C-alpha cells in the first residue's frame, strides 16, 4: 500500500510510520516544517500550511490510503488563542485534505481520521461506552473539538472514499505523551492521584494503537473504532501501578480537584474527566492486543 500520513512526525505518527515501513508499505507524509522533510525510497515528505490553506498536491501521487493525525497539542493552557489553534488545526487541515482530493486526480480509496475518547461523556460506574454512545451535543471543549473533527471527516465519504475514525485513548509510550508526565513525580517519590482518584482512564499502548491503525488500513475497515486497550483502570490504581513498576511507592494523598483546576485551568478537564471506553468493536474485527494488561504495558515502557 502507499499511504499519506499527516502528523507523521508526532508521537503516534512516527511510530505508525516505522511499523508501516517495516511491513513494506510506502509512506508519503505532510508536515508544516521544511526541516522535517525527508526523501527516501519508501518515505517522502511534503509541505502543507493549514493557516494559508496550501498543500503540495504531489503528496497524493500513487496514494491509496490517508491517515490523518495532525493537530495542535491539547496539552497546553487553553487560552482563547490556544483553543482556536487546537480546533482550526484539526478542522482546517481536514478541509485542506478534502479540497486537495476534490481538486486533483487521485487513487485514494480509504481515509482514516483520528479523534479522541474525549468525545464521550464522563462515566463513573456501569459498562464501558461503545462507539454509538456519544451524546448529540458536547458539554466541554474537548468533546466540541472531537465532534467537529469527526463531522468534517465524514465529508470524505461524500467524495466516494471509505472512511473510518479511531477515537484514541490515553497513549502509553516510552518517551513523550501522558506516561512520561505521570511517571515524573513518581520517580521523585511525589506521585499521587488526581481529584477523587476514581476517574476511569482508558489507556492504550502505543504499539497496539499503531497496529490498530495498520489493521484498519490493511483490512479497509469502515466506521468508528475506539483505540483503547481492553482493561481501563481508575486514576489512583494507575498511579500506584506506575509506582509499583518503578519501585517507588505512591503514598501521597491525591491532588485535590480545585488545585488541579488552579494549576491547569480549563485544561484540567483532560486529567479530571472519567472516560470508561470499550475495546469490544476493534477486538471483534479480529484485532488481537499485544499489551492488554496495564502492568505489562508499564513494564514495557518504563523499563
Ligand atoms: N497522544 C495521545 O495520548 C492522544 C490521545 C487522544 C488523541 N490524540 C490525537 O492523536 C493525534 C496524534 O497524537 P500525537 O500524540 O502523535 O500528537 P503530537 O505528538 O502532538 O503530533 C501532532 C502532529 O501534528 C502536527 N501539527 C501540530 N500542530 C499542527 C498545526 N497547527 N497544523 C498542522 N499540523 C500540526 C505536527 O506535525 P508537523 O510538526 O510535522 O507539522 C505533529 O507531528 C493528535 O491529533 C491528537 O490530538 C492523541
Quick description:
38% of the residues lie in helices and 18% in strands. The protein is built from eleven helices and 13 strands. Helix 1 links the parallel strand 1 and strand 2.
Question: What does this protein look like?
Answer:
This protein is of the alpha/beta class and 303 residues long. The chain has a domain at 2-169 and 204-228: NAD(P)-binding Rossmann-like Domain (Rossmann fold). The protein is built from eleven helices and 13 strands. It has helices spanning 11-22, 80-103, 141-153, 155-158, 177-187, 206-219, 235-246, 257-264, 269-272, 280-284, 294-302; strands at 2-6, 26-31, 39-40, 43-49, 54-55, 65-68, 110-116, 162-168, 170-172, 200-201, 203-205, 223-227, 233-234. The strands form three sheets. Strands 1, 2, 3, 4, 5, 6, 7, 8 and 12 form a nine-stranded mixed beta sheet that branches. Helix 2 runs parallel beside helix 3. The protein is globular and about 60 Å long. The two termini are 34 Å apart. The structure holds NADP nicotinamide-adenine-dinucleotide phosphate. NADP nicotinamide-adenine-dinucleotide phosphate binds at residues 7, 9-13, 31-33, 36, 50, 69-74, 85, 89, 93, 114, 116, 168, 170-171, 177-178. This is TIGR01777 family protein. InterPro entries: DUF1731 (IPR013549), Epimerase_deHydtase (IPR001509), NAD(P)-bd_dom_sf (IPR036291), SDR39U1 (IPR010099). Residues 255-300 form the DUF1731 domain. It holds the Pfam family Epimerase.
Amino acid at each position: 500500500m502507499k499511504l499519506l500520513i499527516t502528523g507523521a512526525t508526532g508521537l503516534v505518527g512516527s511510530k505508525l510510520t516505522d511499523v508501516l515501513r517495516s511491513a513494506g508499505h510506502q509512506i508519503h507524509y505532510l508536515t508544516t516544517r521544511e526541516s522535517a522533510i525527508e526523501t527516501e525510497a519508501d518515505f517522502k515528505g511534503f509541505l502543507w500550511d493549514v493557516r494559508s490553506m496550501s498543500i503540495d498536491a504531489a503528496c497524493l501521487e500513487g496514494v491509496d490510503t490517508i491517515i490523518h493525525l495532525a493537530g495542535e497539542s491539547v496539552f497546553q493552557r487553553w487560552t482563547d488563542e490556544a483553543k482556536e489553534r487546537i480546533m482550526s488545526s484539526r478542522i482546517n487541515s481536514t478541509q485542506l485534505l478534502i479540497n486537495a482530493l476534490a481538486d486533483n486526480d487521485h487513487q485514494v480509496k480509504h481515509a482514516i481520521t483520528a479523534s479522541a475518547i474525549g468525545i464521550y461523556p464522563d462515566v463513573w460506574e456501569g459498562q464501558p461506552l461503545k462507539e454509538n454512545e456519544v451524546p448529540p451535543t458536547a458539554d466541554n471543549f474537548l468533546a466540541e473539538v472531537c465532534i467537529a473533527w469527526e463531522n468534517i471527516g465524514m465529508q470524505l465519504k461524500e467524495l466516494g472514499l471509505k472512511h473510518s475514525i479511531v477515537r484514541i485513548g490515553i497513549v502509553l509510550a516510552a518517551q513523550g505523551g501522558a506516561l512520561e508526565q505521570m511517571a515524573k513525580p513518581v520517580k521523585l517519590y511525589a506521585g499521587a492521584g488526581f481529584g477523587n482518584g476514581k476517574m476511569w482512564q482508558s489507556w492504550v499502548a502505543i504499539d497496539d494503537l499503531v497496529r490498530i491503525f495498520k489493521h484498519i488500513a490493511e483490512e479497509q475497515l469502515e466506521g468508528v473504532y475506539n483505540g483503547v486497550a481492553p482493561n481501563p483502570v481508575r486514576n489512583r490504581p494507575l498511579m500506584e501501578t506506575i509506582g509499583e513498576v518503578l519501585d517507588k511507592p505512591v503514598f501521597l494523598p491525591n491532588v485535590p480537584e480545585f488545585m488541579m483546576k488552579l494549576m491547569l485551568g480549563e485544561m484540567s478537564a483532560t486529567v479530571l474527566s472519567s472516560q470508561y471506553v470499550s475495546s469490544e468493536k476493534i477486538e471483534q474485527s479480529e484485532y488481537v492486543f499485544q499489551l492488554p494488561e496495564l502492568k505489562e504495558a508499564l513494564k514495557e515502557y518504563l523499563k
